[in-house]
Amino acid sequence: MSEIPPPESLNGILTSLRERVMGVSESVLSTVDGLLVVADSDTVHPESVAALAAATLGVSRRMADTTGVGALREVVARCGSGHVIVVAVGDRALLTVKGDDGLDLAAFQRESPATVEQLNKVLASDVAH
Amino acid sequence: MTAHAARNVPALLLGLRDEGFSGTVRVSGHPGGTIHLRNGLVGAIETPGAPTVTSALLTSGRIDDEAWLAVCATEPDVDRLGGHLVAAGLIGAAELEVVCAAAVFDGAFAMALSPPGSWELSDREPALVTEPGVEPQQLTEETARRVALLSRSWGAPGELTRVRPVAVTGSGPRRPGVRLTRRHQGVLDHVNGRRTPRDLAFALGRGLYAVMLDLIRLEALHLVRWDTRAAPDSRPSTAPRPSRTPPPTDAPAPKVVPLPKRRPRGGSPGHDAAPRGGS
């Protein structure tokens, strides 16, 4: 059986997301100013993804604002052979998820709020004192 | 409609075959999937559990992405896309037929590996379908044969979907005494302890069943083992970085200096030092 880090660790939360949602292959948690926090990565360069996540979410928020379509939920980039999704984790962090062509988007949207909530809880300890 | 009272998905498909149903069966579950029926025959199956025809053709590089998009632009109804791909010389009719039919069997196999949930019928949705389609009876029998074969040669196929194989150290491409086919080598190159057989199928653009058989073979050769690694958890804090001189907590928020305003034809106010124009 696979050895999974405890769910209260950030790595454990990211690994658990990969195991619960079919098609999730890598994920990167970063700060809103584009710095890497932790990554469950394989082929991507986590620092680059962290930097681009900040830009992606920033630009997309402005786009949502400008076009008047309500608050931004998540950014989904559908590509030739996969997906990249960026979601905000509270006010200070971002989660970027790379998925393959068969990513179960419905399952991702079902599972991601809980994942974001778990990440948020762990990150809250950073400013608790 | 008798099909609605069916006990399970195979029975449902048999009922719909008798009715000559053209449309979509959406099966919920993990992963669940979408079965496209044309005149009662199974034309295509889309599931997150196995690559579709599109995935197989594009991921493997069999068809170039740009050429694919160009053909898609000429034909809005995906049902008829196959003919255009052949007409454009991107793939042979026979090869496309094989790939489409293989994807149907593979999709059915992937969906059979987990207990299906409920289903609902809906209207026809465009899909890259195999012509004329696969008989539901044949699909059910082949799926059962595959599941039985895996159960015999490995164990519960549901378990095999969860393994994350890793290459055995020293099983590089030049390992003496073992000659691998390119296909097996391709699988071996893609195992990394993170990918499940399904992930490998998507990464390679190959069928899930075929990848599972290759993995069993590679394990028998002691070239891969089922394993996962536990990642260490050390990370930097996300707390706002303190400045060199910590500000008092009741200090007002730092004043944000707005960017210089652009003026039509007036140039930037930030560049007053620049030589002025003659106007």
Explain this structure.
The complex is a heterodimer of chains A (about 130) and B (about 280). Chain A has about 130 residues and is an alpha+beta fold. In chain A, about 40% of the residues lie in helices and about 25% in strands. Chain A has 3 helices and 5 strands, in the order H-E-E-H-E-E-E-H. Chain A has helices at about 10-20, 45-65, 105-125; strands at about 25-30, 35-40, 75-80, 80-90, 95-100. A 5-stranded antiparallel sheet of chain A has the order 2-1-5-4-3, with helices on both faces. The termini of chain A are far apart. The model of chain A is unreliable at about 1-5 (pLDDT under 50). Chain B has helices at about 10-20, 55-60, 65-75, 80-85, 95-110, 135-155, 155-160, 180-190, 195-205, 210-220, and strands spanning about 25-30, 35-40, 40-45, 115-120, 165, 225. In chain B, the strands form 2 sheets. Chain B has a 4-stranded antiparallel sheet with strand order 3-2-1-4. Chain B has a two-stranded antiparallel sheet with strand order 5-6. In chain B, strand 2 and strand 3 (about 40-45) form a beta hairpin. Chain B starts with 8 loop residues before the first helix and ends in a 53-residue tail after the last strand. Mean pLDDT of chain B is about 85; it is low at about 230 and about 265-279. The interface of A and B includes residues 3, 25 and 92 of A.
List keywords for this structure.
A: Beta-Lactamase; 3 helices; B: 279 residues; alpha+beta; Arc Repressor Mutant, subunit A; 4-stranded antiparallel sheet; globular; disordered C terminus
Outline:
The complex is a heterodimer of chains A (129) and B (279). Chain A is α+β, with helices and mostly antiparallel strands.
First-last Cα distance of chain B: 83 Å
As a whole number of angstroms, the C-alpha radius of gyration of chain A is 14 Å
**Count of discrete structural domains of chain A:** 1
Instruction: Give the class of chain B from helix and strand content and strand pairing.
Output: alpha+beta
List the strand order in the largest sheet of chain B.
3-2-1-4
Poorly predicted ranges of chain A: 1-5
Strand content of chain B: 5-15%
Q: Rounded to an integer, what's the Rg of chain B over CA atoms? A: 28 Å
